[in-house]
């Protein structure tokens, strides 16, 4: 997961620790009094005046977050934002509040929640948490995780249009093929308790002029893959001429999607995989043009 530096309510650190906004969905939450690892307050770190701070440990916060599980029935989003001692300075920098008793740098974060579905979210403070990083509270969603979900989801097949229309064409005539289904498709899923938006874009089309077992020739059964969705007459860019008359073929069109995703409205990232959707064959009768005497 990628976190972003903030200049306001959760600012950046003087010592280079990123301010993070971490969103977690869960079903419900019961909030006890804030407390430290041993149920007491701990002394602050050496960033400024030493002061007493009360904050849950990462382990306690994880138990709180995972208490009722996550998933489709969730009713809250959660995030953790860095707390500052006093106001931001003139450069918009945060004087962070140290916590914990280990040699590892830990700082106080505010765990906040907002009901799912509110736009914009209405964040309220739940409890302070002592963290090295908000990554301690959440599993990172990898590109491989999203790639598996990308392939699992159902994406629309491309509808193929053939000219001449009405399921008939002429032998040796360049038959025109195209699709108008070129728009991006978006679906939103929940992975590891987080909202993931997946966007699929058609980028390649595989044209199959005939199907094994129909009346097509070997040339008809050799597919063509293009980055062009084709176009109707008179601007046709994808055509195929059938050389065997008085037969029926079943052409079809497969579409290949590339994808990108973002977690909790963060930056878009590429999905390291493609996904191909197979199209259903259509019946096309190949006729021979015969001269007719017209008076």
TrEMBL record:
Region (Disordered): 212-233
Protein's name according to its UniProt entry: PKD domain-containing protein
Gene source species: Nocardioides jishulii
Upper lineage: Bacteria, Bacillati, Actinomycetota, Actinomycetes, Propionibacteriales
